[in-house]
Amino acid sequence: MKAKRTARRVAVLAALLALASVLFIVESLLPPLLPMAPYVKIGLANAVVLFVIAVFGVRDGFIFILAKNLLTALITGGTFALAFNLAGSISAYLVMAGLYLALFPKISLLSVSVAGAAVNNIARTAVGVLLMEAKSLYLQLPVVSIFGACAGIIVGALTIFMVKYLPERLTKFG
């Protein structure tokens, strides 16, 4: 069944977009968690992305990630980072949406999040190798992937919390 595009639904998605963008921007202002890979962050905004996929559907989730990436690039002026962010976001979205559609609830949102984090790191590293012509970036991938799995667990737990405890008026549109 196709979801209705009501004003309330669009308003909630816009509020969630603002939340995800603020989380992304605040997290980008914090010092690097891994000095050898300063682009590595927990990715708290991804909890909002996974929440949108779970509650609003994969179509809205895709529009959401595109809007979040473009909005944050406009606000931060991070046009160079846009290639990294889009590559990571789109690849993570494809994996998370696919797993969610095919296997949820057989696998948890935690597993979906960890898989998305892993693919995000691989895609971002590949873009870095291509843009900077530095194959040595692949050497960071094992450490970054371990950190990404931990971040995926945090993001997945946060998403489960949001799905479980956000008021129904924010998630039900029937």
Structure write-up:
- The model has no long low-confidence stretch (mean pLDDT 90).
- This protein has one domain: Arp2/3 complex 21 kDa subunit ARPC3 (Orthogonal Bundle), CATH 1.10.1760.
- It is 74% helix and 0% strand.
- With 174 residues, the chain is mainly α.
- It comes from Candidatus Borkfalkia excrementavium.
- This is Gx transporter family protein.
- Keywords: Membrane, Transmembrane, Transmembrane helix.
- Pfam families: Hpre_diP_synt_I.
Q: What is the CATH T-level topology?
A: Arp2/3 complex 21 kDa subunit ARPC3
What fraction of residues sit in β-strands? under 5%
Mean pLDDT across all residues, rounded? 90
Intertermini distance: 12 Å
Shape: globular
Count of individual domains = 1
Poorly predicted runs are none
Number of helical runs? Answer: 6
Order of helices and strands: HHHHHH
- How does CATH name the architecture? Orthogonal Bundle
Radius of gyration: 16 Å
Number of beta-strand segments: 0
What kind of sheet is the major sheet?
A: none
Helix content: over 70%
- Provide the CATH top-level class: Mainly Alpha
Instruction: Label the structural class.
Output: mainly alpha
Keywords: Membrane, Transmembrane, Transmembrane helix
Protein name: Gx transporter family protein
